[in-house]
Amino acid sequence: MKISILDQSPISSNQTAEEALNESMELAQMGERLGYERFWMTEHHDLPGLACSAPEVVLSYIGAKTDAIRLGTGAVLLPHYKPYKIAEIHHQLATLFPDRIDLGIGRAPGGSAEVTNALNDNFLQNVYKMPELVGELLAYLKDQVPKVSASPIPSASPTPWMLGTSEKSAVFAGEFGLSYVFGQFMSDEDGQEIAQQYVDAFTPGKQAQTPQIIVTISAICAETTAKAEEIALSPLIWQLQKEKGNEGHGIPSIQEAKNYPLTDKERERLESMKQRMIIGDPQETWAQMQEIQAKCQADEIMIMTSPYSPEDRVRSYEYIAGEVFKR
């Protein structure tokens, strides 16, 4: 099984954004040492607990500090931007770090309505134009646009991936012949059905010869399930706080999370969120990852882990890698 890292550059309540970004760099270095396939960064805007508003900038820093692990934007939110500029950015990265760059394409706003308006006056119109925008972006990546080149042209073009959480995105990726990333941790949809829709819609030769699927999960792995449950409480409580518009100064400590006064409705919501996560010891985590891989025909599992403690985050990835690669 190939495994990869999805990083949001989370800021804990006792950290600065600078510290969180350096933790991301060190996490990428660790992932490279342990054998993780790729390191992707998300794009979010105006969230006090996340430091990843410009993943392409951070990836240039991480690329200079690593040697081989693939690096990617997961995802660049295309409706906010002109395809030409996105092609330029990723060509620049691919020129600096040959044959290491992935371009994940998404269409979510990545922030509030106010942030969306601050980024782009025509976001919704551009969402409806996604097929046109993606086609234009792919043409620039292939250097197939007359009289316009998204230079510098790298020796190895960035690899495009379509990210999504629904049947619509899966079919879209398949029809474009793109590799597909299913965000299971954000979706209530049946991953098995969505994966099959993608495979059935896949058109060989447009971008890739065969369908490729990455499933992205949220996981907390520790030496015991009880410890993993304790660690997972911090990001879960922070998610509840975000939904109430009260995310404070970042991910709360475990003690702060334990002290958070939950309403009955929030307890139900907490249990619902836990169902989207893998929380367990290494053997339990491995077993659930295998189940997801088989169910979704996944070529790779990408893991997002965002606890309060950077040490707990590193250990979680270490436990998972140790369990996966010992086989």
TrEMBL record:
SUPFAM superfamilies: Bacterial luciferase-like. Pfam families: Bac_luciferase. GO terms for molecular function: oxidoreductase activity, acting on paired donors, with incorporation or reduction of molecular oxygen. One of its GO terms (cellular component) is cytosol. InterPro entries: Bact_Lucif_Oxidored, CmoO-like, Luciferase-like_dom, Luciferase-like_sf. Residues 1-293 form the Luciferase-like domain. To bacterial alkanal monooxygenase alpha and beta chains. This is LLM class flavin-dependent oxidoreductase. It comes from Salicibibacter cibi.
